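Deviation from plan, reported transparently: iron/sulfur cluster complex.
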Amino acid sequence: MYPIVEHFYTLQGEGYWAGTPAYFIRLGGCDVGCSWCDTRHSWKKEGWPTFSPTDILGWISQTPATHIVLTGGEPTMHPLDPLISELKARGYFLQIETSGAYPPPDLPIDWVTFSPKRFKPPQPTWYHQAHELKVVIHAKSDFAWAETQRNRCKATQAHFLQPDFYNPSALQWIMDYIKLHPSWRLSMQLHRYLAIP
Ligand code: SF4
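Because the crystal trials were delayed, the predicted structure below was used instead.
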C-alpha cells in the first residue's frame, strides 16, 4: 500500500518530457529538506490515504494516459517494485522524478529524472541510471554544483537547469549561463504558467 498525496492527469511541465500528457502519482514523504521546495505539503510520510497498485491502475485506466510519472515527495522512500511491476505489465511508459536520496528500485524504469540536491547527497548508483539531469538554480553558486553533478552523469541524455520559481533573478542567470555553456538546456515549470496541476 502506498501513501498518496494526490494523483492527476495533466501535462508534464518540466524537463525532457515537458508538454507530454502524463498521469502523476505523488507519494507522501520526503526528508531532503530543500529550502525552496514547492511541494512541502508532501514531506510527511504518514497520515495519507493508502492505496494498492490495483487501486492506482484503476485510476489511470479511466484516462487515455500512456505516460506515468512517479513523483513526490521522494518516491524512492517507498518499496516501489510492486507498483512498477504492475505498471510495466500494462505497458505504460514509466518516469520517476527523484532526488536520488534513497537506493533505486530493483526493477528498471523507462525514464529517470534525476534531480540531486545539496541538502541530502544522492546514492551513487543514480548517477549511472539517470536519463536526464535536472538541477534547480536558487543561487549563483548552484552553477558550479550543477557542473559537478553533470560530470558524474556520464551517460545522461539531457541536462537541464531549472530556475527556483521564487527567485526572480534565477531565470536570467540561467539564460545567460546556457548561452555560454550550450550543452545545458532550460527547464521551465510549464504547469505554473499554464495554471494546471
Ligand atoms: S527533494 Fe523534492 S520534495 Fe523533497 S524537499 Fe527537495 S524539492 Fe521538495
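The helical segments are 53-61, 81-89, 126-129, 142-152, 170-180, 190-194. We consider this an acceptable substitute for the interim report.
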